[in-house]
Amino acid sequence: MSGSYKHALDRQDTVRLSVRWRTQRRDVVDYAVTLIVFESGAWETVRVYDGAHGVNELHRYTRSGGKQAGMVFHAGTLSEGFVAAQLEVKRGWAEMIEGWRR
Hints:
This protein is α+β, with helices and mostly antiparallel strands. The chain has one domain (about 1-100). It is built from one helix and seven strands; from the N terminus they run βββββββα. It has one helix at about 80-100, and strands at about 1-10, 15-25, 25-40, 40-50, 55-60, 65, 70-75. Strands 1, 2, 3, 4, 5, 6 and 7 form a seven-stranded antiparallel sheet that branches. The longest helix has 24 residues, at about 80-100. It is globular, with a radius of gyration of 13 Å. The N and C termini lie far apart (about 40 Å). The model has no long low-confidence stretch (mean pLDDT about 95).
């Protein structure tokens, strides 16, 4: 089974959480949790948390350099990392965007 959703994180709808996942039985086997911001007329990726390589990875993006190398952000299962990634973005999106802007 797979699913997805997008959720506005600010009142102006210029910051969004985009979530996609795939499950087998009840276990998450792949996911992507993406923080995106609408700036200068386009949607830009700020952070991606994913399980594409079977581990919970975080990819930071920069304005000048784009996607940075992944780093493990959670040592648990992909299901646990999927939940943790969503919580991290919901709690820290403003700081994440400020870091991306620098």
